[in-house]
Write a structure and sequence with these properties.
By secondary structure, this protein is an alpha/beta fold. Helix content is 36%, strand content 13%. It has 31 helices and 24 strands. α21 packs across α22. The protein is globular. It starts with 12 loop residues before the first strand and ends in an 8-residue tail after the last helix.
Length: 798
């Protein structure tokens, strides 16, 4: 029997000085990869230990903490123990830091101070707005950051007769954790100590909006200017809720045929498929109501229409796909159900979850045994060469399309990898086709702001893989490549014969990253997967929307969340290859990543019997929390401007009372605690609504921020570029293009002290722009390349 390989991060010590979900999830991902994570807690413990989204009595350690703290160590340190903590830091390879505890907020343990004393250490700081800039000390919550990001209105979520709605759960915290883990691992690859400054606002922009600034500036129109329901979207069938997608024209035509309305099909209609679906909404909903969920899903799958059950904490563990794939595991300490790893590696080198530590369980061991010096395999010594950019010298073959896959490979390209994006003239990347550019316009396929936003720094190659010659050239290219990434449904690669074994036959140490929607096996394996059905199947949609209506599809989380998790899995695979020389298969199913960021639902239900549900814009963390209309008229001429207010502490409540002159509230002992404010939420909302509607959003923000209250304007997403904090951090970078005018592009949501100072070095490639260059590198002559063009194996026009 072969020995079990060490996990990729074995010997990598991480000190966790964070509180809350973001830092905890970051260090969970690192612990899953084998890192030794030492969680430093104040004497009263991380506040997350007592947290339950349903308000259940946790009896000490809450279930969510027990999930996020698997495989970690816990030591207790107070403000007087800074020398002990500093000894821990001196022995470590990385530290993850956030505000929220007396020990982390000690001046000697601020990120900049740690970096000065320990220049070889990777210091990853997670804050709402970043470590400097005009907003760095402003209060914020998950909810107000969604508002500032434009994510609340960015995809038109909600009904036009009501306030827009945020994405339920605590999605932004998990996204920040996943990005922080990637940044930490990227710095480790580079082989230098540095300060990483991650902004949670910027991770929300990356995860909840779809390049709106680039879109608006390039096309002179917003992505969407009104709220409207997605049709059919999530609809009520005879026996429950089902999600039916319609993301392309072909899917609309198939939906018409599936529901018995072939007469609706009009391939020459000047009306968008979204508008056509809305016109037929009443008939579509009536058809859905007459079928069972199973009948609808069987039909939709046969027609290749994206579909999913609407999962929640109660029903999710029994869904056949998750049962067959073993998607949920048992918490090793407390016995509730929790999601498995968000990606799967072969060979199986990820660490199985170990029981979460009790408060201070390892304190005496670290004090008594001393703290060893920096590990020999530490980030600053584990790589022979320090790189100017973390992924310099890495060649990646990017066979992905739309959003999830390209968002993963884009980060590699922004941080120095040579990424070759493969398309064909018959099947270009889908994001080239969704900008609404008329086919009569010259080079219309080059004018997509979405494609541009996702593909800067990449090279463009066209190959028709339906031809034998195209497949042969692809194989020759794979032999030169470190990493192959694809996000087709598994049946597509089955047809091409391009599985991991085939890749290994061409290059034994290659890493293959596969990003199917639902995984490489299981009954939903071949179902088409767009973000909205992934969100429904994972439970994210269940928490999003108004409590008296069907859930809303977030429509903006499933893809970028899959991309950042896939990259985490890929970086672990690269580390395994560095240590062993082995190739690795990474299976990063979109739905597995989504299950992880929706973990609270299954955890709350299986630990406490509590079914979480929709609450509009209220949430479990803050009370009051809601959107309130200001007196502004929006840019579209509507009285539809809102502010987000979220009071998460008693001190913030006192500040709110003072700011709005609510002397009676301040004097009411029933409102001194969150439970009392939650009970009076309707009354509080009524009064806050009256106060806000008499003021501009800018006045409300200024007044409440001065009082220490988390507040935000609900931004139109294309107005992100106007935020002074983003300007200060240089989040948007101007990118020139041979066809389009220079346009601002969003960058990465973290800054690295070792650089780069600028992320976008080259515009997104024109279709097939580098084809001839890359084929010449393979040894093809000019005549051979010309023949490929004559045979339409390669090309530059759609």
């Amino acid at each position: 029997m072969s020995p079990v390989p060490d996990p990729p991060l074995d010997g990598f010590r991480v000190v966790d000085l964070s509180t809350g979900i973001a830092g905890a999830y970051c260090t969970k991902l690192l612990a899953d990869g084998g890192a030794e994570v030492v969680k430093v807690e104040p004497p009263e413990g991380d506040p997350l230990r007592g947290w339950s989204a349903s308000g259940a009595d946790t009896g000490g350690d809450g279930a969510l903490f027990s999930y996020l703290a698997c495989s970690k160590h816990s030591v207790v340190a107070g403000p007087s123990d800074t020398s002990f903590v500093d000894d821990l830091l001196a022995s470590a390879d990385a530290v993850v830091w956030s505000r929220g505890s007396s020990i982390a907020e000690h001046p000697d343990l601020a990120p900049q101070a740690i970096h000065r004393r320990h220049p070889g250490l990777i210091v990853t700081a997670i804050t709402p707005f970043g470590l400097d800039g005009p907003w760095t000390d402003c209060p914020a919550t998950e909810f107000t950051l969604q508002a500032w990001s434009g994510g609340i209105v960015g995809l038109g979520r909600g009904a036009p007769d009501r306030a827009p709605v945020y994405v339920g759960g605590q999605i932004g915290d998990y996204l920040a954790g996943a990005y922080a883990s990637v940044a930490t691992l990227a710095s480790r690859v580079r082989g230098v100590g540095e300060l990483i400054d991650l902004s949670m606002l910027e991770t929300q922009i990356a995860g909840l909006t779809y390049y709106p600034v680039t879109y608006h500036r390039m096309l002179d129109r917003p992505w969407r200017d009104a709220r409207k329901l997605t049709v059919p979207g999530i609809a009520r069938a005879k026996d429950g809720l089902v999600d039916i997608g319609c993301g392309t024209a072909q899917q609309w035509f198939d939906l018409c045929a599936m529901t018995g309305h072939d007469e609706w099909i009009d391939e020459d209609s000047p009306v968008s498929i979204t508008a056509q679906a809305n016109e037929k909404a009443e008939e579509l909903y009536a058809w859905v109501a007459e079928q069972t969920v199973e009948e609808i899903r069987d039909l939709a799958s046969a027609f290749r229409i994206p579909n999913a059950p609407v999962a929640n904490g109660e029903n999710i563990t029994a869904l056949d796909h998750y049962v067959e794939r073993g998607s949920f595991t048992t918490n090793p300490r407390d016995g509730f159900a929790q999601p498995g790893h968000p990606y799967r590696l072969s060979p199986a080198v990820l660490r199985a979850p170990q029981p979460a530590p009790r408060l201070g369980e390892h304190t005496e061991a670290y004090r008594r045994n001393g703290i060893p010096g920096r590990h020999g395999d530490a980030s600053t010594t584990g790589n022979a060469v320090s790189r100017a950019l973390p992924f310099e010298g890495l060649r990646v073959l990017d066979m992905t399309t739309f959003w999830a896959g390209p968002s993963c490979t884009h980060i590699l390209a922004l941080l120095g990898a040579e990424v070759i994006h493969v398309e064909s003239t018959r099947r270009p990347d889908g994001t080239r086709l969704i900008a609404g550019i008329p086919a009569t316009e010259d080079q219309w396929w080059e004018r997509s702001p979405i494609f541009s936003g996702l593909n800067t720094n990449k090279k463009g190659l066209t190959l028709d893989l339906h031809t034998a010659r195209g497949r042969e050239l692809l194989n020759r290219l794979i032999a030169t490549t470190d990493v192959v990434v694809e996000n087709f449904t598994p049946r597509v690669l089955d047809h091409l014969g391009l599985d991991f074994a085939a890749v290994q036959a061409l290059r034994p140490d290659a890493i293959m990253l596969r990003m199917p929607g639902f995984g490489l096996d299981g009954p939903w394996r071949d179902n088409p997967a767009f973000a909205y059905v992934i969100e429904a199947a994972a439970g994210i949609s269940w928490l999003t929307g108004y409590p008296d209506r069907n859930p809303n599809e977030p429509y903006s989380v499933g893809d970028p969340n899959a991309g950042i998790h896939a990259l985490n899995g890929l970086l672990l695979a690269l580390e395994h290859r560095r240590r062993t020389g082995q190739g690795v298969l990474v299976e990063a199913a979109m739905v597995d990543a989504a299950l992880n960021v929706a973990a609270e639902q299954v955890i709350e239900y299986t630990a406490y019997g509590a079914l979480l549900g929709r609450s509009g814009n209220r949430g479990p963390v803050s009370a009051p929390q809601n959107l309130y209309r200001s007196n502004d008229i929006d840019e579209f001429g509507r009285p539809d401007s809102w502010v987000a207010i979220a009071v998460s502490t008693d001190a913030q409540w006192a500040g709110l009372c003072t700011a709005i002159g609510a002397v009676d509230w301040a004097a009411d002992p029933a409102l001194d605690c969150a439970d009392g404010r939650r009970a009076a939420h309707d009354h509080i909302d009524e009064r806050l609504s009256q106060w806000c509607v008499e003021r501009s959003a800018d006045d409300i923000v200024g007044c409440l921020w001065d009082a220490g209250v988390p507040v935000a304007k609900v931004m139109q997403p294309h107005r992100q570029i106007e935020l002074p904090q983003l300007s200060h951090r240089g989040f948007f970078e101007e990118v020139g293009h041979p066809v389009n005018r220079p346009t601002p592009h969003s960058s990465l949501p973290f800054r690295m002290s070792a650089g780069p100072q600028r992320f976008h070095r080259h515009p997104a490639p024109l279709l097939g722009q580098h084809t001839e260059e890359l084929l010449a590198e393979l040894g093809l002559s000019a005549d051979e390349i010309a023949q490929l063009a004559a045979d339409n194996v390669i090309g530059h026009t759609v």
